[in-house]
Design brief:
CATH class: Alpha Beta
Distance between the termini: 42 Å
CATH architecture: 3-Layer(bba) Sandwich
Mean pLDDT: 91
Strand content: 15-25%
Helix content: 25-40%
Radius of gyration: 21 Å
Amino acid sequence: MIDANYSERTWYEATVDRGPLRAALTGRIEAEACVIGAGLAGLTTALELARRGKSVVLLEAKRIAWGASGRNGGFVSNGFAEGMGNVAKRVGLPAAQALYELSRHGTEFVRREIAETDPSIRMGDGWQGCIRYSNAAEKQAAVAEMTRDYGQPMEFFDVAETRARVNTRRYFQSSYDPTAFHMHPLRYALMIAGKAEAAGARIYENSPALSVEKQGAVWSVHTAAGEVRAANVVYCVSSLDRSLHQPTGRAVLPVATYVAVTEPLTQDVIRTRSAISDTRRAGNYYRLVDEGRLLWGGAITTRVSEPSHLAERMKGDMVSVFPELGNPKIDYAWAGLMGYARHFMPLIGSDGQGQWWATAFGGHGMNTTAMGGILMGRAIGAKDDEYRRFAPYAPQWAGGPFGRVGVQAGYWYMQLKDVIDERRYGKAA
């Protein structure tokens, strides 16, 4: 989910061996399903279909997990980018509970696949969500709601416990999700690719899909030098690939976030190996990774190019929370584009004519991309219709360039509300 202006120098790329580039597609081949896009949704779809004995071809424009799937924060937890309270308001609590259970299946899929093949991909357990103002009642109520309505184990930490784990005066109370974990997303994606190929899937890199057309009873997917003929086409494309399938292309907005990784640290400011985030509407998320480096993510923008001052910007965010860091050296800094729908929920569905889609996983894709792939595999491979639970979140026009302006304005508004909340509730703890 990146353009030519985005850096390839990520910490993830520096710590893996991708191996040789897979061949580009040439000539005409046939399959039961053609999956477009080798991010985590496409990889999981291909794996699930291959495991069900279906012949499947996966086309990737660049390399496996080239976009957000291989450059994100690496947090894995249940739920969606949209809060469950808003989901319940829209579809009712029973339907919201069913959707949440599907998201849990995605988390468990990732956990299981890692445990079976390479446990070292998993880098830590738990997720601590901290607030930047003192409001114990609000945090306790949120913990109680998730436990009561969704069966999600959660813990409440008071100020003392919060700061014992994360040594900063910026944070007050926090919640803790013991079922979450964090990992190396690129290594995970490459592992899933290997499993898909071992199960029989054919993966072609450097093979962007240029057009899709119906020819009789099958779909024809054209690349620069090849063609895939298949009864089913699954669109798992990025937020920048807008032309292949108009309903989803018009419904997805590209939203960027930034990530930086420091040099190995010696300061005792983060005393946990859990993932950490603050619960602002536009907050930071971070974790310790190998060698005691701090991986720090944050900011939301519709800008589709990487700012020249990215490293300094991210360093400023870090130091504002942890002044004890002083002036840490940033060894890696990069941007990545996520795909968001207007309703902040994944787009998962079908036109009933052999076209399927699983995209727009927003900022909560490590579990939901797996969930989407599972649903696509069941739908195509076993005629299962559970994917229809996402029918209330059908593709909607995102507003084109006006939508991007609206998203950016919305982000600034969220920042303002965060500031107001911090001032309103004070910093008395």
